[in-house]
Every structure is written in structure tokens, then in C-alpha cells.
């Protein structure tokens, strides 16, 4: 996501915005890009001309949905204490240092004034080759830098600091200016890129671009005592550039020492203020004691004996009421203790009942098992009884059949006997 903001009438594009990026992050990034200490605010201008100051906690992804609206970075006139301190530090520089194209001290002061609330930002310039470079735009800038270097040569001692493990910035000129990084220790946040393009000014969209090189800010990764570190280009080995880097290091060391001195002075001032407040409190207590001492005889003379008796009676009533309340509190405590004991007893009874219920449930389950076993045995007995009844019925049928056969045989025997008798009679008669 990108956002266009006008800084001093020139359009700037803020790149790499995330859903968590706030207006405060944009203001800090633009202030570091501008390189001047101060109190800034972001103004929202509607197409109808209405303006509104954005809150620092507003999210930037809500602003990109209004492409017709204009956003302007405005510097407020009221300066804070840190800005005054940065101005006092800037007042100690020489005019040539203040006219430098790369305003290192002011950028450092701006970064130090916002280090407690800002994240990690880096400035990227849109060149033809697509890489981030620092280069001068005219020979006048080079001549001013040479004058500044010659002026600062007798002020700061020379030191030689090389760091070949860091990234370097390439310049297209034959005598390139110093390329460096100012690294500051910050919390890990998504970097916001500021790209300077020829987008026109606020009043005239086709005006020429006003560009000035700035120092890129990157996160610090070393265990240094100072909050800033200058890393020079390992390809630039000219003594002039090394001396300039050493002078920048001396500047940063001087600023750091001055900041430490100011912090110590502020601590001493706060301690003095605490001591003054403590002494004023002691003086106030002494005055109050003396006032009470002078007022006591007057108050003792004003009160008569009857009034003292009334006060004494009132005190006795209060004492009796206090004793009555104390007795009530004692009774309430006793009642509460009894209730607590009853609750404990009820709780124990409930637990006992629960245990009895569980035991009864276990017994019921056991009896259910026995009943199921009895039912199974009864079903088996019923089945065997049915089989026996069937056998009895079959045997009865067999018995009936045997009796019927026996009757038939008897009938046949009787018939044979009758015939034999008849035959005997016939034989006798014959």
C-alpha cells in the first residue's frame, strides 16, 4: 500500500505500508526524512477545503481509500523541551556545518527525540539504476562540502574506522561524496520506505522536483555503547573521505556526551526539586504546629465547664454505643460461626447421602444382574417345561393308540370266543 504526502509543497510517496502502520509512524518517518527536529502533525484536506488533524493512533490503511483527499505534513510552532535542546546543540555548530547538504546533527537530534516512540524506518531515493545512492546534484554542493571539510579539519582529530562487513552505497560521480549509514537501535517493526518522485508540488503538479540527499536509516546490530554508528563505504579509500567520516564520528561523540550531560543535569534538577518540596512540606508542618500551639489556649478558654460536661456525656454515650455495637458484633460472629458449623454438618450429611446413594445404586445394579440371571434361568426352565409338556402330549397320544388297539384285540378275542362256543354247540348238537 502507498500513500502520497506533501512535505514542504513537494509530494512524497510512503511505500510498504502495513495494516498496523499508524499516522505516528508516518510522521516519524517523514520527520527523519526531512532531517529537522520539531513537532509535526499530519493534516487531512478534503476536496471541499475542510481540514482535519489526524490522530497519531489512526491506521494508515483507512486513508488510502480516499484518493481525492490530500495529506500534508505540517510543523507546529510550539517546540518541546527536546526541540529547544536540539536547537541549542545546532547553535554550537558553525554556519558551514549548518549549510551542509547532509544535515547529520539535526537528523541525529530528530532521531533521538523520537526514539522512544518510533520504529525502524529507512529512506530510499528513486534513481535510474534502482539502487539507493547518495550523490550530489551539482558541483556547487561539492564545493560547499570541500569548504566545510577544510573548515572542520582543524577542529576534530583524525581517526581511522573501517567496516568491510556492511552494505555500501555506490555513486556515479568521479569524486563521490561520503556515503554512510546512521544506524539507530530500535524495536523490530516493518520498515516504511519514503520514495521521492517527480509528482509535482501542492500548488502546481507540473513544477520541478526539489530533491536533496539524505542519510539512510537502518537498524543497529552491534553491541556498541553509543546509540549511533557510522559505517563508511569500503570502496571509498580517499583520505579526504576518511577524515570526513572521522569528523562525523567526533560530532556524534560530542552530541552523545552533551546528551549525557543534559540528562545528568536533569536528574540533579529533579533531585533538587524533590529536596525543595520536602523542605517546604517540613516548613508547612512546623507552621501548622505553631498555629495549633497558639490556638490551644484560646480554645481552652472558650469552652466552659458545662460544655465540657456535655462533651463528656456525649463521649460516654458514644462509648456505650460502641460497647453495644461490639456486643452485637460478637453475637453476629457467634451466629456466623454456628451457621458455618451447620453448613459444614449439612455438607458432611450431603456427602454421606451421596455415598449412600452410590452404594444403593451399586446394590441395585447387582440386583439387576441377579434378576437378569433369574429371568434367564426362568426362560430356560419354561423352555424345558414346554418340551416336557410336548413329550407328555405325545406319550398320551401313544397311550390312547395302544388302548384303542387293546380294545380292538379284546373285541376280536370275544368274537373268536363266541364263534368257538357256537362251533362247540354245533358239534354237540351234531
From TrEMBL:
Residues 145-154 have a biased composition (Basic residues). It comes from Adineta ricciae (Rotifer). Residues 83-179, 196-243 are annotated as: Disordered. Residues 395-426 form a coiled coil. Residues 1-78 form the Ras-associating domain. This is Ras-associating domain-containing protein. Keywords: Coiled coil. One of its GO terms (biological process) is signal transduction.
Amino acid at each position: 500500500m502507498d500513500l502520497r504526502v506533501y512535505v514542504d509543497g513537494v509530494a512524497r510517496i510512503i511505500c510498504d505500508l502495513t495494516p498496523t502502520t499508524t499516522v505516528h509512524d508516518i510522521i516519524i518517518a517523514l520527520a527523519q526524512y526531512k532531517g529537522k527536529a520539531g513537532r509535526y502533525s499530519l493534516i487531512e484536506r478534503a476536496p471541499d477545503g475542510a481540514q482535519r488533524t489526524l490522530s497519531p493512533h489512526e491506521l494508515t490503511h483507512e486513508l488510502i481509500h480516499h484518493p481525492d483527499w490530500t495529506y500534508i505534513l505540517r510543523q507546529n510552532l510550539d517546540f518541546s523541551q527536546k526541540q529547544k535542546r536540539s536547537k541549542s546543540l545546532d547553535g554550537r555548530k558553525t554556519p558551514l556545518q549548518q549549510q551542509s547538504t547532509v544535515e547529520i546533527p539535526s537528523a541525529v537530534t530528530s532521531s533521538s527525540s523520537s526514539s522512544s516512540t518510533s520504529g525502524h524506518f529507512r529512506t530510499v531515493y528513486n534513481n535510474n539504476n534502482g539502487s539507493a545512492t547518495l550523490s550530489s546534484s551539482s558541483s556547487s554542493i561539492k564545493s560547499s562540502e570541500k569548504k566545510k571539510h577544510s573548515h572542520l579539519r582543524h577542529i576534530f582529530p583524525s581517526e581511522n574506522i573501517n567496516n568491510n562487513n556492511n552494505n555500501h552505497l555506490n555513486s556515479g560521480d568521479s569524486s563521490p561524496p561520503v556515503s554512510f549509514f546512521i544506524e539507530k537501535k530500535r524495536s523490530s517493526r516493518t520498515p516504511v520506505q519514503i520514495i521521492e518522485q517527480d509528482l509535482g508540488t501542492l500548488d502546481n503538479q507540473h513544477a520541478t522536483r526539489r530533491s536533496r540527499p539524505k542519510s539512510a536509516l537502518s537498524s543497529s546490530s552491534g553491541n556498541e555503547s553509543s546509540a549511533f554508528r557510522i559505517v563508511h563505504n569500503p570502496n571509498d579509500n580517499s583520505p579526504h573521505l576518511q577524515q570526513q567520516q572521522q569528523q562525523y564520528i567526533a560530532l556524534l561523540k560530542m552530541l552523545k556526551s552533551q546528551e549525557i550531560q543534559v540528562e545528568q543535569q536533569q536528574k540533579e534538577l529533579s533531585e533538587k526539586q524533590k529536596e525543595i518540596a520536602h523542605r517546604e512540606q517540613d516548613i508547612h508542618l512546623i507552621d501548622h504546629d505553631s498555629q495549633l500551639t497558639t490556638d490551644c489556649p484560646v480554645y481552652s478558654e472558650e469552652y466552659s465547664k458545662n460544655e465540657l460536661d456535655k462533651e463528656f456525656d456525649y463521649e460516654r454515650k458514644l462509648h456505650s454505643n460502641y460497647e453495644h455495637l461490639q456486643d452485637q458484633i460478637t453475637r453476629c460472629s457467634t451466629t456466623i460461626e454456628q451457621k458455618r458449623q451447620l453448613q459444614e454438618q449439612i455438607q458432611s450429611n450431603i456427602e454421606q447421602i451421596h455415598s449412600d446413594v452410590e452404594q444403593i445404586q451399586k446394590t441395585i445394579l447387582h440386583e439387576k444382574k441377579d434378576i437378569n440371571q433369574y429371568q434367564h434361568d426362568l426362560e430356560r426352565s419354561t423352555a424345558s417345561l414346554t418340551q416336557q409338556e410336548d413329550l407328555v402330549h405325545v406319550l398320551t397320544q401313544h397311550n390312547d393308540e395302544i388302548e384303542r388297539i387293546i380294545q380292538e384285540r379284546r373285541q376280536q378275542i370275544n368274537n373268536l370266543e363266541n364263534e368257538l362256543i357256537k362251533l362247540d354247540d354245533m358239534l354237540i348238537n351234531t
